[in-house]
Predict the structure.
Amino acid sequence: MRLYFNGCSHTHGDDLESPTTQSWPAVLANTVGCDFLNDAVSGNANDHIIYRTIKNAHKFDKIYIAWTYVERFTRYRADNNYVVNFNPNLINSLYDNDSNFFNYGKMHYAVWHNDLYSFKLWLQNIILLQLYLESLNKPYVMVNSTNNLIDRWTCSWPEFVSSVQLLLCFDLMNDDQLYQEHKEIQQLLTQINFNHYIGWNTWWLTKDSFITGTTGHYLSQGHEHIAKYILEHDTN
């Protein structure tokens, strides 16, 4: 049996001495005696996770997806086809000193980034990837690397306005517009198959307190805990 894993640095194993053997995908796969591919990369974005998973899922027997921060996005350089992941801190090991990378990212997050749209797009991506994996009859497990403010976006209507007031263009939206946004989010939630999700809003990879390395990522004890937690709660 071959297992496929995708996610960001928290799945790749940043700060570990040996990510290939100490990351939680490696620990989980070795525990159940399976071959595996850890396709996660540091700084990964959800759109790139989807791209790589759709490209590779048919080769594997079970899929594990660890969704990352919704504000990240991926672009591909025109001159070399290199994958470039963007984050609000504009940190990239290859391009963070590149003026094109910096200026493009700064403009995006200052002008074009929208928290509401990013959250709704993430929900849509979850739905679409679930449907794709189910079309292949592939068992799969999804977790979150971070909470992504799920509580604030998915609360009930009476709480919604005060909850998201600082997250969107509040002064430019009337009550009906706000209600329609809330309604859309709730409708998207009904389409997610939470039977394949571990800890949707109760647990995520970075929730618990463990010793971290120089860049703030779990060391081996944290990864061992994640692997154990997922195996204990995996019903797929």
